[in-house]
Amino acid sequence: MGTGCNHMKASANTPPPPPPAEPLPVSLGPLAIAAEVGTTLLHGQLAIKAWSSPSILQAPQTHDPQTNHPPPVHPFLLLLLLLLPPPPPPPSPFTSFSAVKSAIANEPDPDKLAQLFESESAAFARFRRHRPLFHLSVRKLARSHRFDLIQRILAHSISTSPPSQLASEGFWLRVVTLYSEAGMVDQAIETLHQMQAQHSCPRTEKSLCAILSVYLHNKIYDDRFHRAFATFPAQLGVSPGVNSLNLVLKAFCSAKDVDSARALVARMESDFNVAPDIHSYNILLGGYLEKGVKSGGFDEVVREISDKGLEPNLTTYNHRILRFCKSKECTRAKKLLDEMVGKGVEPNSASYNAIIFGFCKVGDLESAKTVLEKMVADGFATPPSFAYYTMMKHMVEEGEFDKALEMCKEIIRRKWVPPFEAMEGLVKGLAKLSKADEAKEAVQLMKKRLRGTAVDAWGKVEAALPL
Question: Which residue of 9, 44, 105, 451 has the lowest C-beta tally within 10 Å?
Answer without folding.
Answer: 451
